Amino acid sequence: MNYFKKILRFATPYKKFAYLNIFFNILYALFSALSFVALIPMLKVLFNQTTKIYTEPTYQGIGNLEDYLKGYLNYWVTTYSGEDEMKALVFVIALVLILFLLKNVFNYLAMYFITFLRNGVLKDIRNRMYQKITDLPISFYSEKRKGDVIARITSDVLEIQHSFLSILELLVREPLTILFTIAVMFFISVKLTLFVFIFIPLAGMIISRIGKSLKKKSDRVQKEQGEFLSIVEETLGGLRVIKAFNSESRFYKVFSASTERFFHFSNKLLNRQNLASPTGEFLGIMVIGVLLWFGGKMVLVDKTLDASSFIAYMGLAYNILTPAKAISKASYGVKKGNAAAERVLEILETENPIKEVKDPIHATEFNSSLTLENIAFKYEDDWVLKDFNLELTKGKTVALVGQSGSGKSTVANLVTRFYDVDQGQITIDGTDIKLLSKRSLRELMGLVTQESILFNDTVRNNISLGKEGASEEEIIEAAKIANAHDFISELPMGYDTNIGDSGNKLSGGQKQRLSIARAVLKNPPIMILDEATSALDTESERLVQEALDKLMQNRTSLVIAHRLSTIQKADSIVVMEKGKILEIGTHEVLLKQKGVYFKLVAMQSFD
After folding, report:
1. Cβ(229)–Cβ(148) under 8 Å?
2. In whole angstroms, what separates CA 80 from the centre of its chain?
3. Residues forming a β-bridge with 557
4. Three-class secondary structure of residue 55 per DSSP
5. Which of 19, 163, 392, 495 sees the fewest Cβ atoms within 10 Å?
6. Least confident of 143-152, 350-359, 396-405
7. pLDDT digits (tens, 9 = 90+) for 42-80
């Protein structure tokens, strides 16, 4: 229940629906009990046991309440029907039908209002989860599988929704139905009702034992669901490679092994859950059987209870079974939902290590320099950067070169604050970037990566991602600068063409030029290019490089380069190895030194 206390806070905006649900549930429970009580006068008319009362009885206090109500009901029937017994029967049948109709109307209204609460909570949890997913740092997803996160925001949240309804029934509707029914049963026969209470706790103990292991079993089912969703996500992402290496059967084996485990876990969970209903019903019928024996003795032998009251009493006793079964099912739902809530709250309560200060500075411009001062950083145990210093002056282009694993991309990740430095500081115009709001920091920067990250949307919406409300002229101008306008114009619907999942309807060079157009439109003062041309063919590289040259004009740029031919015009080239700077200078100066950079250029020239 601890997890559900935390989930309940999502119901606060919808509390008016909860109050209306509770109100109509109270009426439903009350009329559920009264509808069976109304059977007593009908049965008495049928059995010709109705006492004719022509004088309205007087109320003589709480001790005489039962006799007063029975007398008043008989007086009412007598007054309406006179000596006509069929008229009396029609009257009491109409009374029963009206009570049952009201009971079902209130039942519908209770369910009507709870629907808004359930779906509202579902919507808000999903919105909060999505917000959290986008807010958490990139490092979080190096530890979590994407499919598992998808499972949490879909099936786990849906499980909470179902369990949430169960809890409201558990807390309000079913207990009230039982309470009102038992009150009426006491009203009919105290002795018989006390006898019933001997058996109810015994049945409850047996049912509760069944549900103890449900949370653990449910947790295993939901984790396995996350596992096979991860496999599906990886398969769709790498389908081209899977087909190229004829690995379909291998991935099928992995997926089928996961679904096999899901099959066994689900069977155990559902079979344990399904045991609740027949067990509860059998125990209920046992109670009814004992009641028939004990109550029958009171009617036939002791003559302390009349037959019509006993039949109505049996109806009331059976009326307890349905809410009792619902409570047992709801309690199982709570245990299943508890496992789902734990997985959802694990995401929602994960603290973002990249935090903003209480009153962050909202930077609006870049005036002088971006400086990395004595920084050190590690992803896990080994230092990737150590005692690293670098200055990027406004209007200049600095290129980082070196072998893979030298820490080039890490510098870009730290500057954009996708990760935080472990030691030292990064400053913009002398202000530590940790004191800036993350939003304003990233507003100052544009990013073009080696892998063109595009979305399943139109060309227009992909380009305008960094500038909402951009005009048609601005989008076309950005595309022209990125050498993308010509090929966009040739697409079936031009700028309104959908480019498919990850932009797969376009070539690599076209995708990269769209990424550059997106950065151009944003028009940031600092541009970060992370190996933006390394995955392209010669012709695409030429077009993209022209676009990049236009992009970097009169702009501060940090270029991470694999192909050294693309950064020869840089104002400063920094040669890195294992997180340290080996050489720094212009292309010409570094060639004259005949050091590491000279060897790298020679190797690429030879290639």
Report:
1. yes
2. 60
3. 397, 527
4. coil
5. 19
6. 143-152
7. 566 555 555 555 566 666 665 555 555 556 666 666 665
Name which residue leads in pLDDT, 126 or 75: 126
Mean pLDDT of 317-338: 71
Compute φ and ψ for 572, nearest 5 degrees.
-150, 135
Which one, of 402, 414, 430, lies nearest residue 378 by Cα? 414
Paired with 377 in beta bridges are: 385
Alpha helices in 275-391 (DSSP H): 276-300, 307-348
Model-level pTM?
0.71
Distances (CA, A) of 68 to 74, 79, 88, 313: 10, 16, 20, 19
The pLDDT of residue 605: 60
Identify the structural domains of the chain with CATH numbers, from first to last. 2-348 (1.20.1560.10)
Q: What is the pLDDT of residue 190?
A: 79
- The phi, psi pair for 499, rounded to 5°, reads -95, 5
What does the pLDDT read at residue 237? 67
Of 225-229, 378-382, 580-584, minimum mean pLDDT range: 225-229
Residue pair 348/136 in contact (Cβ under 8 Å)? The answer is no
Q: What is the side-by-side strand order in the sheet with 526-530?
A: 445-449, 526-530, 556-560, 397-402, 572-577, 580-585
Ranges of H-type helices in 152-247: 157-168, 174-188, 190-210, 214-237, 239-244
Mean pLDDT score of the chain: 78
Beta bridge mates, 423: 376
How remote is the C-alpha of 46 from its chain's centroid? 57
563 C-beta neighbours (distance < 10 Å), count: 16
- Checking 387-393 for CB contacts under 8 A at 24+ apart, the result is 387/580, 388/424, 388/579, 388/580, 388/581, 389/581, 390/574, 390/581, 392/526, 392/556, 392/558, 393/368, 393/369, 393/556
Q: Which pLDDT does position 607 carry in this prediction? A: 47
According to DSSP, residue 170 is labeled: I
pLDDT at 106: 92
Q: And the tokens for 149?
A: 């996160």
Separation between Cα atoms, residue 508 and residue 505, nearest integer Å: 10
Please list, in sequence order, all residues whose beta carbon lies within 8 angstroms of the beta carbon of residue 356, skipping any fewer than 6 positions away.
437, 438
Amino acid identity of residue 281, one-letter, is: E
Local structure of 93: helix, strand or coil: helix
Place of tokens 């007087």: 58
Q: What is the largest CA-CA distance in the chain?
A: 125
Cα-Cα-Cα-Cα dihedral of 58, 60, 61, 64, to 10°?
-90
Chain centre distance of CA 121: 10
Cβ neighbours of 279 (radius 10 Å): 17
List Cα–Cα distances, 512 to 95, 491, 539, in angstroms: 77, 16, 13
CA distances from 503 to 23, 66, 241, 453, 510 (A): 53, 78, 17, 8, 9
Structure-token pair, residue 6: 């935390």
Among the residue ranges 231-235, 397-401, 479-483, 540-544, the one predicted with the least confidence is 540-544
Residue 538 binned pLDDT confidence (cut-offs 50, 70, 90): low
Distance CA 549, CA 563 (A): 15
Q: Rounded to an integer, what distance in angstroms lies between the CA atom of residue 558 and that of residue 398? A: 5
- Lowest average pLDDT, out of 350-364, 514-528, 545-559, goes to 545-559
